Amino acid sequence: MTATGIHKEGARPRRSYQRLSERLRRFMAEERFQSGDRLPPERTLAENFEVSRSSIRKAIQMLADKGLLESRQGDGTYVRAPDMEPLKNAILEAVDSENLVFDEIMEFRKILEPAIAELAALRHSPEQLDQLKIIACDQQRRLLAGQEDGDLDARFHHCLALCAGNSLLAGTMDHLNKRYATGRTAELRDAQWRQFSVSSHLRIIDALERRSPADCRKAIEEHLNTILQKHPFVITRD
Fold it and tell me: Could you tell me which residue ranges the HTH gntR-type domain spans (predicted)?
């Protein structure tokens, strides 16, 4: 065993390097390293983690094997964005399935959209917030005119997903909006429901302005729960 407590061979050293790689990964998250950022030199990391440079090098290699880091000869180690395409394609393929029914879509929305709302509260830009306000104002105008606003409701949820700053979440919401089009047209048919939709969106906007993840989550959960109570049906298909 070395002075750092890491074995040189056998099963135990791999577990030790695994733990070190997990510590390094947490460090990257806590320090908010982004894709393209360069890590501190190996010597600095070794001193900070109180391990040998060879141990740090092995931990870096483990993260590189997972696609999270990239070592460039003579230039250091850089953070890489993980390849999300396989996961994204699998999720979108599932959402596109013709076998999905209304209840399944709503269950998925109840898992997905509160998380989106929490991230949006922390990450939205002033321009994105202004866009949500414009959509809500357009909804109010259509409400007064007695017009349906299903397209605006879809735009609101799309823009909210963009506020979360995650392309996978935004892409999934786009697909859900397409699959949910029939239900959205039905639910927004009467004025009472359109008023509820506008009020819900205004509560979400208020929580976004205050950058309150908890209030954003609560507002979207109340919105989705009301939809489930009002429409316990299955989406019809051609």
Answer: 14-82
